[in-house]
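Why do we care about 3D structure at all? Because function follows from shape, and shape follows, mostly, from sequence. That is the central idea of this module. The next example makes it concrete: a single protein chain, its amino acid sequence, and then its structure expressed as tokens.
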Amino acid sequence: MRKLAVIFIIFFMTAIPAVASKIPADLQNFILKSLPNTDFRFDGMIILPDNTIYLPLFPAKPEQTDNIQVNKTFPSGKTLAQKPEIVIFNNNYVILKVIDDRNGKKTIFVPTPIPDEIRNGLLPQDMLVPRGLTIPESIKGIIGNLNIETSKNQGLRVEVPKSLYDKNNTVTPAPQLKNKTFYVATGYSKNIQVINTDSKTPAYALSQDYTPNNMIAYDNKFLLVTSFGSKTLNVISLADEEIIKQIYLTTTPDEILIDSSKKIAYVSSPENSSIYVVNLETMTLSKQIKINGMCERLMLTNDGSKLFYCDKKNNEIWAVELDNNYLLKDIGKFPNVSKIEFNNNKIYITSRTKNHLAIIDYETNGLIAEIEITPKPVDMISFENNLYILGALENSLQIIDTKTDEITDSIYLNTNGFSTNIDPIDGTSLAIISDSRTTIYCVLDMKTKKIIKANAIEVPIRSIVITDRVKKINK
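And the structure:
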């Protein structure tokens, strides 16, 4: 067994001032009793399940109370569950409902006379409010330094070139993909293509300043994006179609992994020999984990206890024991690593050039087996007690039972292409297999071990993210 090395953990906060205001937990809990499933977004906006929006006003002097109550509503006598235009609580906090005026423009209601709780309140200063919101002159003081975009600003949304449109544009998606959306980075364009699953072509695109490198969705509300040549991790609100937060690093971020249960993301920076930890509740950096080498091929175990990576300088594989004071464990060197997976306490490592799968016992670090697999293995995914290995040369999938470590099935994709990625669809047994040569993607059901659908798509897929269709705030 190789040496175990303890690594340093550098705690720091992002260089951006912490201007985000958090609604107190007791007030959140009180609101949730009357309005279940309300989303208290990290920037301060309050979004109800039906997309009703409330803006919080933070008091200059909060009133301390052990028993949160509604002090006053407008219209008077309304309950919180009836969603009044204004709610003033007994701790001096206020929530203001975004409403449409007679011209269809977004605004908020102002009562006469104006209560002191409103006149002296302040909106969160980094909140992304609906575009074109009009704050009445009589309460302009609540804005502070908050920037409100005009309704003419379309955010990130841009039209796709007409040449991409196809008269025969519709496809029939797999039933499980109905009402979902693809966000696709093509590799040749800076823009992220937005494609409904019943269509071959993008409905529109989200403009970016740099070409996207890695993308991942969080909570079906946000898209986290790293880009080539950019030192920021961009957080896009899918409901607003705006960059809601930019997290600045000292070096260029690369790959992103998310642990949804812990509400954190891991973001690699190979040139800085670091893996950064992002708090997804506040969208801020919370830790910098210093590691050995230049990390790539990141892989997070299902239980979130271990993170694996390959050092691109020397092909050394390392494990970071996240629940063990970030202990580093040297797994060994493997040639031209294309993917790392972990299943049944075993590490699975594919070599793209040697067409081999190495199987390592995690506890002993001993080699269990090395087996020949499908040529040019480019990607691999673990589901239950099976591994799905994607081979580009023969355009095939091999399935390995991780209990016996034997190849049990082979699936040929019959797309005459060069498959590149397998991307799981959260909350399902499905995965999307994308292709760099043909404009076709396949839908794999990992439960039945079958390709259940193959659909045309009129853009190349370098990276794809699948989410439920998100209702837009600015419509």
